[in-house]
Amino acid sequence: MAISFEQLRDANPAMFQQSATAWKDWADAALIHAGYVDDRVHPHIRPGHWDGMVAEMARGKVTDAKTRLTNTAGNLKSIETVLVQAGQDFEQAQQDLRKGIAQANDNHLAISSTGEEVTVTIPADLLDESKHSPSEIDRVKTAASEAQTTMRAALYRANQIDGGVEKALNGLFPPKNGGPGNNGGGPTGGHGPSGWNGDYGPSGAPPLQKPSGNVAEWIRQAIAVLQQHGIHLGPNDASYIATIIQYESGGNPHAINLWDSNAAAGHPSKGLMQTIDGTFNAYALRQAGGAAPNVWNPVDNIVAGVNYALHRYHSLANVPGIRNIIHHAGPYVGY
């Protein structure tokens, strides 16, 4: 069931951390029991103390039990990590939603919502050319567009997070008979795990420091790098990049997705444009006089994401999510 505008606005993201703490406790308990096998059981079944066929079978069973407990602890720990990251991302999505609400309210705009869809409309009085100058009307239109994009992107990310956590949990505990309508197959069915597998990929986990900087400035620098490599963008492309960033990461250069199919394969999407390591390495371009590209560097990440999108879709206006928004053909979709 999709998260609605009201649910995201009023949610308590701290519940993610509380749940993560419980999973950590379960992981610790599993490790304690694995240690109990070593301390209390092994001394009684070691060779010389107990020999014979039955003893060998007992040692095999005990070793298997310890392995299962250790593996279970690792799985539970991975869910803890997913929940911690999900809580941080969900809180950021909520903050973005509230930021969009505040922007709409500050400009006296109307907000309407139906489920996970939110629309900002401009009262007719604010568009009255007899009362307002063209620049004032343009400012209000820009504010309405920004507020709507911010809120829709926040809802998109919140629903991605919610669905991703469900996949990660189903990976550990597949629903009986599989997911709805899939007869046991598929990503949430009974044929294996989905969601993060505990591997951050070759570029590692995100840096620990809090994100800083300005998305507009990062985009400006990225466009300059692309131009250095002979890639020239159109007049609307900066806004398209900003829109992709808003939906994909909310402007957080340290964002990481630990629950989709890429994460399950061991290479989670990272950074402003949510690129996987393989895509980043294939499409990254070195800044003039700069160090080797880094997926966590916001400018490098934008450059790689844009370069990839241009190679795949030939123009940023043709990226599916952007095309849907431009032509009102549907919701944003990942690129």
TrEMBL record:
<dbReference type="Pfam" id="PF01464">
    <property type="entry name" value="SLT"/>
</dbReference>
<dbReference type="InterPro" id="IPR008258">
    <property type="entry name" value="Transglycosylase_SLT_dom_1"/>
</dbReference>
<feature type="region of interest" description="Disordered">
    <location>
        <begin position="173"/>
        <end position="212"/>
    </location>
</feature>
<dbReference type="InterPro" id="IPR023346">
    <property type="entry name" value="Lysozyme-like_dom_sf"/>
</dbReference>
<feature type="compositionally biased region" description="Gly residues">
    <location>
        <begin position="178"/>
        <end position="195"/>
    </location>
</feature>
<feature type="domain" description="Transglycosylase SLT">
    <location>
        <begin position="237"/>
        <end position="318"/>
    </location>
</feature>
<protein>
    <submittedName>
        <fullName>Transglycosylase SLT domain-containing protein</fullName>
    </submittedName>
</protein>
